[in-house]
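On clarity, I found the account of how folds are encoded harder to follow than it need be. Since the whole study asks how a given chain folds, the encoding of that fold should be made plain. For illustration, here is how one protein appears when written out as sequence plus structure tokens:
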Amino acid sequence: MNNNNQNPNSERKVKKTYVPPNNPPSEQGTKKQTQNNQNYQPPMSNNGWKPGESKIDLLKKEYLIEKELGRGGFGITYLATEMASQKEVVIKTIKEELRQRPDFSLIKNSFINEAIKLRACQSPFIVSVDQVTEFDNKEAIIMEYIEGENLQSIIENGGQLSIKEALKYIRQIGEALKTVHGQNLLHRDIKPDNIIIRKQTNEAVLIDFGLALQFNPDTIESNRLWLTPGYSPP
């Protein structure tokens, strides 16, 4: 990627936005996904934003890309700071490799449309989506940053949960899924790695909706490539 965005005098602009007009901003707060591994070292990317240097303008707000939190089969997730408010957010974009696929236009449209629909999933147990936009031909989802630890890491470091804790988190994720299903969406990758325990409230929050899709039996098979063995639906 050309890093002209580092130059404060360079021209920056939003190429297009997919946020519906008059759609009120999210009310969920200001925190989102944490990295699954504190020692995670992101790979070098020829086309990604450069942590600590890249500044991007999204919807007339300037963000500094702080670091890469992780990447999976579908997307890359960055921690960023909104410069004016110094609010931390998470920005997710589609992996560059997927742009080479012949069906990328379908992947892109699905990514955008489902992210917009996820904005309507208002629940304390679901990561909130603030905006959906595009910059430098990269589709971007701006989400809250959640300070906390994922459930997989908690179990690996501290052992099994108590029955009381387990039932509490099961109920909370169940409430999250009721909201998701109410929007005619499926998450399809519910696993401990995708559940963050919010530090402030000790509540379970469902994250990583990169595999979410509208419930349509004719399209479900096409997305099996990114499912997690042992956790994905049959």
Notes: Residues 17-144 form a domain with the Phosphorylase Kinase; domain 1 fold (CATH 3.30.200.20). The CA atoms of residues 14 and 58 lie 6 Å apart.
